[in-house]
Design brief:
single chain, mainly alpha
């Protein structure tokens, strides 16, 4: 009985000790939970302070060359082939893309320059050909005019030759007539002489 009464007397003390230990455990749990939240907050803050800038820097390193490539391509598409002062560094895809754009722009610039030189040469040659054609046309017109004058002169000469031939024919006829007259005159003179001789003889 004394033992039972002793245990009964100690029950309130045990209950109080259990309550104290329970409160201590609860306080410890609360403290641990608070520390966990603090650590979690610190970890999140560190993550935000470290990861976000790194992410932004990574995005900038990716997006900036892409934006530059887009602007460069738009200038090339608009016909602006002037060299761009862009310092491309690195060996990643963006850097290789920018270097490829630079090579393409330089190649296009050279091709356009050659086309312009060829165009200038063609323009000069066309001008020379046009001038030569004009000179040839003028010479052809002059030659045609000279041929017309020569034809007119030949026609005049032909007319003169024809007139000369007609005059010669007429002169020949006149000479023939004169010869006939002279022949008849000689016959008459011979007859007169013969008659005079007959008269003298008688």
């Amino acid at each position: 009985k004394k033992a039972i009464h002793g245990i009964e007397d100690n029950l309130p003390k045990l209950a109080a000790q259990l309550a104290q230990e329970e409160d201590a455990v609860a306080a410890m749990q609360a403290d641990i939970t608070h520390q966990a939240y603090v650590l979690l907050g610190i970890a999140l803050a560190m993550a935000v302070l470290v990861v976000v800038p790194l992410t932004l820097a990574n995005m900038n390193s990716i997006c900036s060359p892409i934006n530059l490539a887009c602007e460069w391509s738009e200038r090339i598409a608009a016909g602006d082939l002037s060299p761009q002062d862009v310092n491309v560094q690195g060996q990643d895809e963006s850097a290789r893309m920018l270097r490829s754009l630079a090579k393409m722009q330089a190649s296009l610039h050279g091709i356009v320059g050659q086309v312009r030189l060829a165009t200038d040469s063609i323009t000069t040659a066309s001008s020379e050909i046009a001038a030569g054609n004009q000179d040839l046309s003028e010479r052809t017109e002059q030659t045609a005019s000279n041929l017309q004058k020569t034809a007119a002169s030949i026609e005049q000469i032909a007319g003169t030759v024809k007139n000369s031939a007609e005059s010669a024919r007429q002169a020949n006829q006149m000479a023939t007539s004169a010869a006939e007259v002279a022949s008849r005159g000689g016959s008459v003179v011979a007859q007169v002489a013969s008659t005079m001789e007959d008269i003298n003889a008688s």
